[in-house]
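Let us work through a complete example step by step.
Step 1: write down the sequence.
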Amino acid sequence: MIIKLIEHNPKLSIAVIAIIMLAFNMDVLEVTIMEARNFITAREMLTDGNWLLTTMNGEPRYQKPPLPTWLAAISAFFFGIKSVFAMRLPGFLMVIALAKYNYLLSNQLLKNKQHSLINGLLTLTSFYVIGIVIEAPWDIFTHGFMLIGIYHLFQLFGKDKGYWKHTLMAGVCIGLSIMSKGPISFYALLLPFLIAYGLVYKYKHFKAKWFSVFSLLLLALVIGGWWYLYVRYADPETFLEITKKETGNWSSYNVRPFYYYWSFFTQSGLWTIPAFVSLLYPYLKTRVSHLKAYKFTLLWTLLAVVLLSIIPEKKSRYLMPVLIPLALNVGFYIEYLFRRFKNLTDKRETVPVYFNFGLISLIGLAFPVAGYLLLKDTLTSGWLQFSLAAIVLFALGVLLLKALIKKQIKFVFYLCIGFMVAVFLFVVPLSIYLKQDNYNPISSLKVELDKASEDLFSLGDPSPEIIWNYGGKIKPFDINNLENQNEPLNIIVQTAQKEDLEKLEQNYTIEFITTYSLNTVSEGTRGYKDRLSYNYYRLTQK
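Step 2: predict the structure and record it as tokens.
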């Protein structure tokens, strides 16, 4: 009954599932370094009015264009400048848009709502599609807007008339993608799409559309490029210095071998094994219901991986755009299982299915015991929340196992979607109950210093997470210009870097006050970061 309801309302179902999965615990996870940079810039837009010449901790920050930060700032204006929920809200809305437009693009390809719904849900529940919102908040915007642009491009290429609406929408959305993170998605998502489309569908009647394509490219460049031109004119020296550093990173920073991305399908998380099988063209070419569309999504996926592999600088998060065509590709395999799994007897076909979904079932069944053993020494409270999570995951594990034994693969698929939702809804919130011996946020210090009309200084550049948590600017301390420093001085120094403090002992009496740390694990353990721990000192002149 629930499955029929989901399938009869695909677009609404994608939105509702996403809201249930993500909305209630959006502010639970700690703010990451990339998020902190974005949030600080958004905060300074609201407090200092730096909407065009963007800043972070009062210093120019032109590394990324400002569209995602504008959206975060607008959300914070309505829901609170200190609210992590507000800052993350636009990114999670873009996740919904990404899943919805992958559904819509699928429906244009396949003219099959059920199959397209599978693809939309695969997009929504792919691990790194969600993870990228927290790890690198600009990426979801640049790839989300580009996918919307691609959806309209696909219709522009396929129609003989009435395509000016698609020309306009494609131009605007590609421009918004550029305004989110420069030409990244143009290279990683649009270029492989264009190549794959040309190879599979050809560019029929293109001569009649050349002016439309020219118009949308011009529109995209105007929308995506005006901010760069403005900053280049308003602050040329800083802009050129930052640009030089950023472009230099492409060939000298995080350089990895060509084959670094070959395990890209693992980024889909829950769907890792189906993703791998979906790439086996000799196996699936006789089994898929839309061979031409399958060739297109397979080429789109593989071309995206190859193009990304050419760039010397490589990071796992750069693979996120690959998950968009990969979700469409995996959908062909899942849809094939829907049709044929009950009749399959060849173990070469059934064992991967039993292994993948059986493993998910086993995780659910084992969670009550395994979760208790893992958390018994670190979970300080929240055992009611743990019990609820254990009951739900165990129940889903039982249902998954039963459905798998009965070969009810459609039910198995939707139970896996439910499993993903349950993890985010019930398991993720357990993180707020974990023992945090070292955790001592710096946010309370700003209230004290504001009352005394005093500033906070830092020896060395403070980490973005610390600046965000503090709630305002942390000024750099010029150790070579002590005469112009007011007293008393409030200084933070990274716990692992105290050497510079010794230079001040000749002129100042140094009083250690406390250690502020955003680490949720003990020093020396995995996950501990030096950049999140700072000693706070109060200095008075001798």
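Step 3: interpret the result. The two ends are 78 Å apart (CA to CA).
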